[in-house]
Amino acid sequence: GFTQAGDLYGIADMTKERDLENVQILSDEPTTLAGRPAFRLQIEYKSPVVRGAVLYREIIVGTVNAKGLYLIGYRAPVLHYFARDTRAFEASLASFSIADNPVKGR
What we know:
By secondary structure, the protein is α+β, with helices and mostly antiparallel strands. It has helices at about 5-10, 10-15, 80-95; strands at about 20-35, 35-45, 55-65, 70-75. It has a 4-stranded antiparallel beta sheet with strand order 1-2-3-4, with helices on one face. Strand 2 (about 35-45) and strand 3 form a beta hairpin. The protein starts with a helix and ends in an 11-residue tail after the last helix.
């Protein structure tokens, strides 16, 4: 199964690449995505002062199959937006599927 998704997803690398501050892993749990074993990671961080020092929360859900890694995420400022739009993210997450036979020619 998926364990230590924070390490798998490369939280340390992401923090450096996106210049994030005070990154905290709020939860790291097994789940399912499109009927497959998956991980669900929730993190919180601040954007740099030059970008307003806004506190963000992010949910990352991921799974793998023979074709590769699938990641679906939701990120929003904690103040006002995150709680307001989480339900819409959960609805879209529930409708996500992975086609067994992708359309040819694309």
